[in-house]
């Protein structure tokens, strides 16, 4: 089989007219697909519905320590839910704060408080001329939005299959005291689905930052989000490694049940050292009267422990897995060997990362939109929304039905081919 | 009847030994009472338990507009809950954002975003040499903590029965461009239970601030928290007055169902002009994936409208009212005419404000603690926790049972008398 690059102008033009006809056919169908966000499908959410029956008006809405969840009190999470989230993260309940429904808010708050008040007593970032964050990319657009919002300079760090380029990370962190943080999605990374290797995790734990207020923002969003029961990535537990390296305060870890129970009504957590959590709690006493404890109780009683959470995830993955396999199968079938795209084959998480030929991502996303499908904006996976190679596209297969997913992938493949041909013909002119 | 001031040294000493004996008797009982916060009593929370049955696993968890509450999406509140909260505040749904369980977090965020990014495009407060807030006092300690946290200078404004001293407010706001806000609890104020008069509200709406980014932080925490069905204070609706005065952007109004449904698991709201809410939402898109929509749906379906909320409040007030009446009756019976204390007689809200003789509040609170009862720290009702006259004490009658309340008030009265006598004897030395 020839790659597109090996084809003659005439061959490319023939392909184009065939593909254009197929594209017009799809466009005529008037599709309305949205693959822009990593949203759970309704069927996934259905599997968590028993959660709604855990508590009712006959329930005693008290924590195991006897606190009335309906009333004020307890700022950092009820005991049983701290245990649940600690279990999920393989850490200790005393190292966890459990909050409301969005871990993004916890991340925002961590940065916001650092900007206004500094980290554990260091100079507030708003008093500094320059604050920088390292941003492994492609990465999660919401992370980048938070740092961009606070005017923090973002430095792109290339991602590899083993995690961020650690030579570069170590260099920046060690040499530049204005580097205050790094955004990480260490397991089933967004969007590539890569899991940091043991060596990467150890090198993170061993970092010797120039800045005392440097922290790793370890967004373990997909910690138990495996697609298969019999094959899954394993991530080293970061705090254990930090302890070994003598750096107990280096990491803020974040997680939530957004993709376990309900994306719109789950619970979130931040895990860290006693010193870091004291800092967090000091702010929280000013900021809030505490999280929704009734919803925490609901989650704690329903899931009980990590096994309960994992059992729920297996129900979820049974629904997502076929969609991943469908997309990956079609990509392989239709694009393999053509030289116009590479993609990842994750065994967990919510995304597939697709790298088109350089300079093609925006045009592919636009073409898909023309055909009736919204994708995550090209560039969104890079700081400032600018992918220097205009190549990366995030595919989020979870939300559409299997039938829609088939249509969507067909359209996507068509658009990749068409845009690549245009690009090659342009280049040949 | 003689006032304490009119008594001879001998009379005071006689009183003291009688009162000391009574105090020791109570102390021996080993009371453990907590009147430090305005917490709903368990019986109040019980009245809201039907809320727990509104949704179950058979429910269709969709908004009236068809959005799945279990999933991501909708940042500013589902339509039916915006209507509910707007109804409660006598304003329009489009002027309301409904959030999670704590209006305090919304207030914190409003200030925090102003500090880091400025108000609707004005200079971020962190870039200014001086930012000041007016603080009507006695007031709500949590308000003062927020401004203190951000290093904002707090200026005490004396409270009157009609609200803050408006001559002073107008002067500061008009003349000092570093004055950026004022904390208000306009109805059944915390702790005095005063409701701002129509004139006060109109003068607020008519303020002509020197600072374009001055806002009124209108914490309408007790908007429908009447103790009686047949007598209640009426507060003029502030936005209507602002419109009339041509100042649509002057006010952020806050409210929650913390003291209507569950203190730990309710919903909160901020109401304001389209311009101010656009500013708020711009931040929220970075900060959060949205509030817990399932709990919003639960509240919207259960309460339906203002009538539903008011019906719930009547169940609540039936439980709180006897406690207020007990305290007020005992204070009148035991302290009226003695010249050692004045107190307010609110018909709503959560507090009674007590003014002891100057220089006695701290000693009374300490004496109560000795006797087994925790009160809100003396001074907490003033900026920086310092009551210049050391006179104001906040009484929170909602949480203890009626029997406990009787014990508590007996102890409180004893302590007021004892400390006052000590003070008078000291002065006479």
Explain this structure.
The structure is a homodimer of 429-residue chains. With 429 residues, chain A is α/β, with parallel strands linked by helices. In chain A, 41% of the residues lie in helices and 14% in strands. The first copy, chain A, has helices spanning 9-28, 42-47, 79-88, 103-117, 141-149, 166-175, 198-205, 238-245, 274-287, 293-303, 306-335, 361-370, 402-428, and strands at 33-35, 96-98, 132-137, 153-160, 163-164, 179-184, 215-219, 251-256, 268-271, 341-343, 352-356, 373-375, 392-395. In chain A, strands 2-9-8-7-6-3-4-5 form an 8-stranded mixed beta sheet, sandwiched between helices. In chain A, strands 10-11-13 form a 3-stranded antiparallel beta sheet, with helices on one face. The longest helix of chain A is centred in the C-terminal third of the chain and has 30 residues, at 306-335. Chain A is globular and about 75 Å long. The two termini of chain A are 24 Å apart. At the A-B interface, helix 4, helix 5, helix 9 and helix 10 of A face helix 4, helix 5, helix 9 and helix 10 of B.
